[in-house]
Every structure is written in C-alpha cells, then in structure tokens.
C-alpha cells in the first residue's frame, strides 16, 4: 500500500508509517484488495485526511467501519458518494441537523463539504471487505487511528471531539480534556436513536457555540 496522504498529515504521521505493525497492515490491505472487492477504493482510503488538512482541523467525528455496500464508502465516516441513498445512521444525523440548526435535509450524503470546513471524519478502521462488516478490524487500523487521535490531542488546541456511541466514547481516554472539548451521545443508528439516545443531543449547535467561544469559524452543517 503506497501511502498517499495530504502532506500536512504526512509530516505528523510518518513515524507511524515506519512501524512494523503498519507494514503488516499495509501488506494485509494490499492482499485483501487483490483477492476481494473492498471499500473504499484504494485512492479514497485516506480521504478523511486529504479533505481536512491537519492545521485546519477544528472538529473530529469518529466512526467505526466504512460502509460495505457497493459505491457507498468514500473514505469519510458516515459519508456516502453523491447520488447514493443515505444509510440509516446518516439519515438520523441529517434529521438532527435539521432540527438543531434548522438546515434543510440535504439531497447529497457526501460529507466532503463538512471536511472542507475542518471536520475530520475519521473511521477507526479505514477499509472493509464487501458485504462483511468489521472484516478488517483488529488488523492494525485501530492502532493507527488511535495514534492519529493522540497526535491531534497533543499537537492541537481546542478541538471539538464528537463521540457517538459506546465505541467512540472509549476514545475519550486518548484525548487531553484540559485542552479540548468532548461531546458524547448515543449512536445515530436506528437501534440507538429510536431508544432516545441520539435525537436532541444538539451536537451541531453546541459545536458551533464552542467554536464561537474560541473565535473560530463556525461549521455550516
């Protein structure tokens, strides 16, 4: 796997790319992509970083796994390509945005527009085999993305972390709470949202309120 990643991130992450676990991970991913259909496409594996340079990162949203259906995953957590039907979690995200910040429900589920404003949409695992959720977990991706979170926590100031669901909430242990802001809630998946753990969390307005306090540009959700 030739690591093609935005230079602003590469400077910070280069030490990770040199570690034995990453070499093993790269070999695993390369073999999987040769043998099976995997998502996202190879050039989109590091898209979250390419669309949101290190110095411009203001908000971090942590997902778990890429979508594993055809043409869905585009390298940004919860995001799908233009013209693709919105998966249930994304539907619930947009419903909360609509109520929270009074934005109309969008036609496209492509969240590149958020990333361009400084929202890092980071999945803990960056690849997946088609139709097999979690198939690339515990192969090294989590070690890499944990390192990403630690680097952001150490080298940045005043980042707003949105941790949705039990898996994401565990990542709070990696974040320096004296320097950053953490908002937690249930996951936007129907299972969690329909039990009252997602809707009404107001994370989008709360994020902008925090950014305003720090004199940072607000996110146009």
Order of helices and strands: HHEHEHHEEHEHEHH
Describe the largest sheet. Answer: 4 strands, parallel
Q: Could you name the CATH homologous superfamily?
A: Uracil-DNA glycosylase-like domain
Low-confidence runs (pLDDT<50, min 5 residues)? none
Helices and strands in order, then pairings?
Blueprint: H1 7-17, H2 20-35, E1 38-39, H3 47-50, E2 59-63, H4 88-101, H5 112-115, E3 119-123, E4 128-129, H6 141-155, E5 160-164, H7 165-169, E6 181-185, H8 190-193, H9 203-213
Parallel strand pairs: 2-3, 2-5, 5-6
Antiparallel strand pairs: 1-4
Keywords, please?
globular, 221 residues, alpha/beta, 9 helices, Uracil-DNA Glycosylase, subunit E
Task: Please describe what this structure looks like.
The chain is an alpha/beta fold and 221 residues long. The chain has one domain (7-214): Uracil-DNA glycosylase-like domain (Uracil-DNA Glycosylase, subunit E, 3-Layer(aba) Sandwich), CATH 3.40.470. 38% of the residues lie in helices and 11% in strands. It is built from nine helices and six strands. It has helices at 7-17, 20-35, 47-50, 88-101, 112-115, 141-155, 165-169, 190-193, 203-213; strands at residues 38-39, 59-63, 119-123, 128-129, 160-164, 181-185. It has a four-stranded parallel sheet. Helix 7 links the parallel strand 5 and strand 6 (181-185). The chain is globular, with a radius of gyration of 17 Å.
Short description:
This protein has helices spanning 7-17, 20-35, 47-50, 88-101, 112-115, 141-155, 165-169, 190-193, 203-213; strands at 38-39, 59-63, 119-123, 128-129, 160-164, 181-185. The chain is an alpha/beta fold and 221 residues long.
């Amino acid at each position: 796997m030739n690591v093609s990643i935005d230079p602003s991130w590469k400077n910070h992450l280069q030490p990770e790319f040199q570690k034995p676990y990453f070499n093993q991970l790269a070999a695993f991913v390369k073999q999987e992509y040769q043998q099976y259909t995997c998502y996202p496409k190879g050039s989109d594996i590091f898209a979250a970083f390419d669309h949101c340079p290190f110095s411009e990162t203001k908000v971090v949203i942590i997902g778990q796994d890429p979508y594993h259906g055809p043409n869905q995953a585009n390298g940004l957590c919860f995001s799908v390509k233009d013209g693709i039907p919105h998966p249930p979690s994304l539907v619930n995200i947009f419903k909360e945005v609509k109520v929270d910040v009074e934005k109309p429900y969008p036609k496209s589920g492509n969240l590149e527009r958020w990333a361009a404003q400084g929202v890092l949409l980071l999945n803990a695992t960056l690849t997946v085999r088609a139709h097999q959720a979690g198939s690339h977990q515990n192969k090294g991706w989590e070690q890499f993305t944990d390192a990403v979170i630690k680097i952001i926590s150490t080298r940045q100031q005043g980042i707003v972390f949105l941790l949705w669901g039990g898996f994401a909430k565990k990542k709070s242990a990696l974040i320096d709470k004296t320097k950053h802001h953490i908002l937690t809630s249930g996951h936007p998946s129907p299972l969690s949202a329909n039990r009252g753990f997602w809707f009404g969390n107001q994370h989008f307005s709360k994020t902008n309120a925090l950014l305003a306090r720090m004199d940072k540009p607000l996110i146009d959700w």
